[in-house]
Automatic annotation (TrEMBL):
<comment type="pathway">
    <text>Purine metabolism; IMP biosynthesis via de novo pathway; 5-amino-1-(5-phospho-D-ribosyl)imidazole from N(2)-formyl-N(1)-(5-phospho-D-ribosyl)glycinamide: step 2/2.</text>
</comment>
<dbReference type="GO" id="GO:0004637">
    <property type="term" value="F:phosphoribosylamine-glycine ligase activity"/>
</dbReference>
<dbReference type="GO" id="GO:0005524">
    <property type="term" value="F:ATP binding"/>
</dbReference>
<dbReference type="InterPro" id="IPR016188">
    <property type="entry name" value="PurM-like_N"/>
</dbReference>
<dbReference type="GO" id="GO:0004641">
    <property type="term" value="F:phosphoribosylformylglycinamidine cyclo-ligase activity"/>
</dbReference>
<dbReference type="GO" id="GO:0005829">
    <property type="term" value="C:cytosol"/>
</dbReference>
<dbReference type="Pfam" id="PF02769">
    <property type="entry name" value="AIRS_C"/>
</dbReference>
<dbReference type="Pfam" id="PF00586">
    <property type="entry name" value="AIRS"/>
</dbReference>
<keyword id="KW-0547">Nucleotide-binding</keyword>
<keyword id="KW-0963">Cytoplasm</keyword>
<keyword id="KW-0436">Ligase</keyword>
<dbReference type="InterPro" id="IPR036676">
    <property type="entry name" value="PurM-like_C_sf"/>
</dbReference>
<feature type="domain" description="PurM-like C-terminal">
    <location>
        <begin position="172"/>
        <end position="328"/>
    </location>
</feature>
<keyword id="KW-0067">ATP-binding</keyword>
<protein>
    <recommendedName>
        <fullName>Phosphoribosylformylglycinamidine cyclo-ligase</fullName>
        <ecNumber>6.3.3.1</ecNumber>
    </recommendedName>
</protein>
<dbReference type="GO" id="GO:0046084">
    <property type="term" value="P:adenine biosynthetic process"/>
</dbReference>
<keyword id="KW-0658">Purine biosynthesis</keyword>
Length: 333
């Protein structure tokens, strides 16, 4: 007696349907540098005109924020998170994200759900100016439960070698400029899920679940515009570990970042989480972004013009501290 792949739990035709549903969203991210379409064994991307290009890569996932999405049956935002987590990291070195590949795994593939997830990936790529050039959808019955999905991605960016930003130029007196986050972004959700059990609870003009699913902000376009005019000395994407873990990564040896808590515009969502879980302030700052999604380290002479340019671009930047001589860890006052 023979057995089919479908009887083993994998429906190839559902996979073909998912690809067809994804195509339209993927196509809007394509550009002239993409040399082949979906279906090839490998994706091809032409670099174009660079003098001395350096490729900068990053990979990440969405983490347990996915659990909130699945419980709310809202699948079209977490793909943006997957892209944002990667492209914002690549951006920290001054690189323009050029292409992205996604990986989607599940227990039982539902074409419409998979297409919703990938539509979020495509939207994130569009916001970052990166082409979604390929990916993989893996149906793994018996490994993932039906209804469970995992999503991750891989991004490549490019920067001219003499334009790389790595924090080595930061020095005493440099100014720290914050770009606000949109919320919790995609870190700390294991703690969030321990604190918040009912996602239907009313919160501001929506529910707490909907608020938690607010996608991670993508900072590529405003920051790349700044890099055309200014020598940004360092940049930090504030992810897991918050400011204490991430900001020192872009400060040069023998110096430290000084951040004033009273200057940080803490978002209400963090106040809500802290109150609900009776969480200490140190734990909050060591886990969440607290309202600061990205930090620029800039020369004092450029500060006012950079703030002005960011405001013109629709951003809401503000100063949170400075660089001084000292040990590399963050000085949070």
């Amino acid at each position: 007696m023979s057995i089919s792949y479908k009887e083993a739990g994998v429906d190839k035709h559902e996979g073909y349907k998912a690809v067809e549903l994804m195509k339209k969203a993927v196509e809007k991210t394509q550009n002239a540098n993409v040399l082949n379409g979906l279906g090839s064994f490998g994706a091809m991307y032409e670099l174009g005109k660079y003098k001395n290009p350096v490729l900068v890569s990053g990979t990440d996932g969405v983490g347990t924020k996915l659990d909130v999405a699945f419980k709310l049956k809202k699948y079209n935002t977490v793909g943006i998170d997957a892209v944002a987590m990667c492209v914002n990291d690549v951006l920290c070195h001054g690189a323009q994200p050029i292409f992205f590949l996604d990986y989607l795994a599940c227990g039982k593939l539902q074409a419409e759900v998979a297409a919703d997830l990938v539509s979020g990936v495509a939207q994130g790529c569009f916001e970052a100016g990166a082409a979604l050039i390929g990916g993989e959808t893996a149906e793994m019955p018996g490994f993932y439960k039906p209804g469970d999905y995992d999503i991750a991605g891989f991004c490549v960016g490019v920067v001219e070698k003499d334009k790389i930003v790595n924090g080595s130029a930061t020095t005493q007196g440099d100014i720290l400029i914050a770009l606000p986050s949109s919320g919790v972004h995609s870190n700390g959700f294991s703690l969030v899920r321990k604190v918040i059990k009912d996602y239907s609870v009313s919160y501001e003009k929506t529910t707490i679940g909907e608020a938690l699913l607010t996608p991670t902000r993508i900072y590529v376009k405003p920051v790349m515009e700044l890099l055309k005019k200014y020598d940004i000395k360092g940049m930090a994407h504030i992810t897991g570990g918050g400011l204490p873990e991430n900001l020192p990564r872009t400060i040069s040896s023998g110096h430290q970042a000084v951040v004033f808590k009273e200057k940080i515009k803490v978002l209400e969502i963090f106040k809500y989480i802290q109150k609900e879980g009776n969480i200490s302030e140190d734990e909050m700052y060591g886990t969440f972004n607290m309202g600061v999604g990205f930090v620029l380290v800039v020369d004092p002479k450029d500060k006012d013009n950079i703030l002005k340019d960011l405001i013109t671009m629709g951003e809401e930047p503000y100063e949170i501290g400075f660089v001084q001589k000292g040990e590399k860890e963050l000085c949070l006052k």
